[in-house]
Specification:
Elements: E1 5-9, H1 14-25, E2 29-34, H2 38-41, E3 60-63, H3 69-75, E4 81-84, H4 91-94, H5 98-117, E5 125-131, E6 139-142, E7 148-149, H6 156-160, E8 167-168, E9 171-176, H7 189-207, E10 212-217, E11 219-221, H8 234-243, E12 249-250, E13 257-258, E14 260-262, H9 263-275, E15 281-286, E16 292-293, H10 294-304, E17 312-313, H11 330-336, H12 344-357, H13 365-374
Parallel strand pairs: 1-2, 1-4, 2-3, 4-5, 5-10, 10-15, 11-14, 12-17
Antiparallel strand pairs: 6-7, 6-9, 8-9, 13-16
Helix pairs in contact: 1-9, 5-7, 8-10
The structure holds nicotinamide-adenine-dinucleotide.
């Protein structure tokens, strides 16, 4: 077998850096292309060139922006496998920085795909990071009949009356695992960007006959997540609050359900998709399949950090948020033989062990909250 060489865009980030480790361990040569966004890397421990110290020294590094077509084209030399993870990642922030997000997430995909379509490359297989956020609400069924129901998004009137759950025609609904066939109803610019970039990669990948898989990631957690970035990663944001002796700020009533998947399970999913011989243009969820409420996460983290601090329930709605969404993970298993392996409690404890060794995070939650309020994005 000729040597496999993977390019990981966003490879200095939280998920990308774990993917780099996994690919190297499986015998790939790996090149990282990352522009080292200050919002992500500003507070992290870096070397003299600005690369995070956790980045695997065996990977080749290119500091550059994927929007710069010359940089991306140069980085593609000798690449057989492309993992595209670089993105601006923040649901709330995307609603105020609309041009930046659309440029970095959607235009960047256009730049990359146009270069791939010119044909001067050796890419055999592509995996791109999509997001559960493109679903909008997850899947539901009637609590009375058990029949599937596709509810309308919660209205302003409903949210203003602090009625947080989904209803349909007077019926209470209960959330069920969300499958890839769910109608896409993105409710933020970030989600619209991720949907567009997923469809762009699948469409051009198919046209160029390069097997391409979009992985719809649920809430990833684990070491190396930027703790001082207030725009993304609910577990990291809560940890930052707790380490600064502040209560985690919880929107709505805290009973909204999410799916927390360990970053090593995400890296394994990417690596397995890239290694697969399957010829296809696929979409797969990457989650744990387990639902946990935001309040439970806040309480668990406080317990693990030995902080006697209860979450602060805001009873407010953040525009773009959905009520419940957790993954049906069966398609990833069926197509690529991948199942989540990491135990949640052990994974969270390991995250806390890492946090104790990382730099003390700066808590910027109130700053991001003030931004949202200024833009009337909190109801
Ligand atoms: N973390 C999650 O829970 C989650 C959930 C769903 C989807 N995703 C997706 O997974 C991917 C990785 O997310 P993450 O949590 O590791 O984010 P991250 O912010 O830790 O990493 C993103 C990396 O991309 C780099 N980057 C951003 N724009 C770039 C550009 N124009 N050129 C080159 N590099 C650039 C950043 O410097 C950073 O190192 C993203 O595409 C994100 O949308 C993440």
């Amino acid at each position: 077998m000729s040597q496999r060489h993977a390019l990981v865009t966003g490879g200095a980030g939280f998920i990308g850096s774990h993917l780099v480790d996994t690919l190297l361990a499986r015998g790939f040569d790996v090149t990282v292309l990352d522009c080292l966004l200050p919002q992500v890397h500003g507070e992290a421990e870096c070397d003299a060139q600005g690369w995070p110290v956790y980045l695997n020294p065996a990977a080749r590094r290119i500091k550059g922006d994927i929007l710069d077509d010359g940089v991306f084209e140069g980085a593609l030399k000798g690449i057989t496998h492309l993992a595209h993870l670089a993105a601006s990642v923040g649901v709330g922030q995307s609603m105020t920085n609309i041009v930046d997000y659309t440029r970095n997430n959607t235009m960047a995909a256009a730049v990359m795909l146009e270069i791939l379509s010119n044909g001067n490359h050796s890419v055999e297989r592509i995996a791109v990071a999509s997001s559960m956020s493109i679903y909008g609400e997850g899947e539901y069924r009637s609590a009375r009949t058990g029949q599937p129901v596709v509810p309308a998004a919660r209205s302003h009137q409903q949210l203003e009356s602090r009625d947080w759950e989904l209803h349909s025609q007077g019926e209470d609904l209960e959330p069920v695992p969300t499958t890839e066939d769910k109608l896409l109803q993105p409710s933020s610019i970030y989600a619209v960007n991720k949907r567009d970039h997923e469809e762009m990669f699948l469409s051009v990948g198919r046209a160029l006959r390069i097997p391409t898989t979009a992985l719809r990631l649920f809430n990833a957690y684990g070491s190396r997540q930027a703790l001082s970035n207030p725009y993304t990663g609910v577990a990291a944001i809560f940890i930052s609050r707790l380490l600064n002796e502040q209560p985690p700020l919880v929107f709505e009533d805290g009973n909204q359900k999410r799916d927390f998947v360990h970053v090593l399970d995400v890296a394994n999913a990417f690596a397995s998709v890239l290694e697969s011989e399957r010829v296809g243009w696929e979409i797969c969820n990457v989650g744990s399949g387990q639902a946990i409420t935001v309040c439970e996460i806040a309480q668990l983290l406080a317990r693990l950090l030995h902080k006697n601090i209860a979450p602060q329930i805001l009873n407010q709605y953040r525009v773009g948020d959905i009520r419940h969404c957790f993954a049906d993970t069966s398609r990833l298993q069926r197509l690529f033989g991948v199942t989540p392996k990491q135990d949640f409690t052990t994974g969270m404890s390991e995250l806390i062990d890492w946090v104790q060794t990382a730099r003390r995070p700066v808590d910027r939650s109130l700053h991001s909250m003030a931004e949202l309020q200024r833009s009337r994005l909190v109801i």
